[in-house]
Amino acid sequence: MSRLIGPPNKFLPHEWKHANQVQFRRSEQERTRSEKLTAECKRMIEESNTSTKRMQQDAQTKLEQRIQDIKFWRQELEQMFEEMVQEIETLIVFKSRVERALESCSQPLQVTLQCLAERQKRVAIDLVHDEVEEELLKEKEVTEGVMVLLQRTLEQINEQIRLVRSVKYCLDKDLKDKFQAERIDDFCSLLTNTSPGGHGGNSEFFSHPLLMTLTPEEWESICNINISKAEKEKNNSHSLRALVESLLEQTATDMRRQHDTTGRAMELRIQEAKAAKAELENQLDKLLEETASQEKNLEDLRVAVAEKEAPLRVAQTQLSTRSQRPNVELCHDPAQTRLLTEVKELANHVERLTEAIELSEMELKALAGQQLILEEEIQVKSNSIYIDEVICRQLRETPLDVF
């Protein structure tokens, strides 16, 4: 214990010098390390500042380039989007045209069916499968075929509108995404080191980086795919519209041509029926004249028979009276011979005239029967003419309104 509180040991002068030299060297070494560290830190600061500036400039350039790329594709998509909107509107117009065309076929078809039904009311020999009926049946077939074709075309237009709207939806979605991406990148390009609200040195922003699933090439490929799909549907739409335009023109031409053909056939049939009716009326007039002539002939025959009764009665009376001559006076003299001949000839005349009367009466009956037939035929023709000229022609007077 007494050693511990005793006077301290004294060092020798060379020990003191050595200790000072050691402290000098340590101090020099520490200062040298500090100077090197300071120089290295300055170099690192300058290098980091240069690198940071270069990286920020490069990032800014990349952002600006990216914004330009987005703007380019957005403009492409916008143009295609507007074309799709216009195409949909145009297709809707074509759809309306086809719908109106389909509706306009109903009235001509009803007219055709009504004409066919009315012509079934023809009677007797006039209920014939003539050219008019053939053309009306063709007209019905053409109209029904056009309606089926238009209905099928309408379904194609509806499907094309659906496809174009689907493409338009994809373009719209892509446009909205690109608009938002451009807005974000515009905001990012405006940020500076002194911008308020920045993340600064907060490393948490980078601690959970987003999972980027697409490369720029894949991103551009998707844009191309959307535009290619739109271009394809636009071309399909153009082709369909050209087809519809041609179809409407061709079907309208076919219907008008058949309508005109049926009209000409009906006019010809009306003229034929009128000519036949006129000929029947002419025959009836001649028949009536012949009937009157035959009636007069019958009357003349009856008068002739009546006129023969008196001479026959006289001759018979004369023969009867001369049969009372006495004895030899009852001879067969020339007078007797003549009277016998006269009675025989008069009886023969009466018999022949009576037969002629019977024939005349039969002929009158035949004429009356033929008159009735002609009058019925004239009525048949009048009915047919009324059906074709009045009913059917009036039904078909309305102009054919096709597309």
3D architecture notes:
- The structure is a single chain.
- The protein has 403 residues and is mainly alpha-helical.
- It has a domain at 284-321 and 333-395.
- It has helices at 13-119, 131-190, 216-322, 334-395.
- The longest helix has 107 residues, at 13-119.
- The relative contact order is 0.10.
- Mean pLDDT is 85; it is low at 200-208.
- One of its GO terms (cellular component) is microtubule cytoskeleton.
Structure at a glance:
This protein has 403 residues and is mainly alpha-helical. The chain is built from four helices and no strands. Helix 1 (13-119) packs parallel to helix 3 (216-322), helix 2 runs antiparallel to helix 3 (216-322) and helix 3 packs antiparallel against helix 4 (334-395).
Topology summary:
Elements: H1 13-119, H2 131-190, H3 216-322, H4 334-395
Helix pairs in contact: 1-2, 1-3, 1-4, 2-3, 3-4
Highlighted features:
403 residues; mainly alpha; cell projection; rod-shaped
The global form is rod-shaped
The total beta strand count reads 0
Give the overall average pLDDT: 85
Distance N to C terminus: 132 Å
Beta content? under 5%
Please tell me how large the radius of gyration is. 63 Å
Q: What's the helix-strand series? A: HHHH
Uncertain residue segments: 200-208
Helix content: over 70%
State the major sheet.
none
Enumerate how many helices there are, as a single number.
Answer: 4
Structural class: mainly alpha
